[in-house]
């Protein structure tokens, strides 16, 4: 009989499928299922399918005695003779490497790092000359900006090197001013809508355009 009150009949489905219940427990579980417990019926179907697959599994094979030694050897701590010099990661020189292209806004250039046309996502470096203005725009997806150099005055706040700016989908930015020029890393959408400057897409709606 089922003595533990904390064990529900539904929790006996796996034991019933394996034939591990006592006769009285099996009878109680079968009556429970006959009474209409759909969850137990579904569990039994899944368990029986799994048991059928296990019956098709290959017979267990005893591994050779040498396998343990090979495994231990493969994970042993390397000696100083085994350690190979690590290849250093490439360094990104913002100013010297890779092409810079003019943005659709005067005084602003960008350097493409990643472009996924399927998801419309872009990752790029943006640098602005002293006195240039980044136009007012709306974000069609989440935008992340990390300031690298200079200052950017945006929506009443001044951001400098090391500052991180995250804008949610549908949010707006006012005009961004950079009195002394700036550079930032940006990940966002190539479909951000602008409200001044920029060019229009084929649908007639203005967007920041990558050349």
**CATH architecture title of the largest domain:** Sandwich
CATH topology of the largest domain: Jelly Rolls
Rounded average pLDDT: 76
Major sheet size, sense and barrel closure: 6 strands, antiparallel
What is the string of SSEs from the N terminus onward? HHHHEEEEEEEEEEEEEEE
In short:
This protein is α+β, with helices and mostly antiparallel strands. It is built from four helices and 15 strands. The longest helix has 18 residues, at 38-55.
Describe the structure.
With 211 residues, the chain is α+β, with helices and mostly antiparallel strands. It folds into two domains: 9-55, no CATH class; 101-207, Jelly Rolls (Sandwich), CATH 2.60.120.10. The protein is 21% helix and 28% strand. The chain has helices spanning 13-18, 23-34, 38-55, 66-74, and strands at residues 101-102, 108-116, 121-128, 133-134, 137-138, 143-150, 152-154, 157-159, 164-167, 172-173, 176-177, 182-189, 193-194, 199-200, 206-207. It is elongated. The protein starts with 12 loop residues before the first helix and ends with a strand. The model is unreliable at 1-6 and 196-207 (pLDDT under 50).
Features:
211 residues, alpha+beta, Jelly Rolls, six-stranded antiparallel sheet, three-stranded antiparallel sheet, 15 strands
Please write out the topology.
Layout: H1 13-18, H2 23-34, H3 38-55, H4 66-74, E1 101-102, E2 108-116, E3 121-128, E4 133-134, E5 137-138, E6 143-150, E7 152-154, E8 157-159, E9 164-167, E10 172-173, E11 176-177, E12 182-189, E13 193-194, E14 199-200, E15 206-207
Antiparallel strand pairs: 1-2, 2-3, 3-12, 4-11, 5-10, 5-13, 6-9, 6-12, 7-8, 14-15
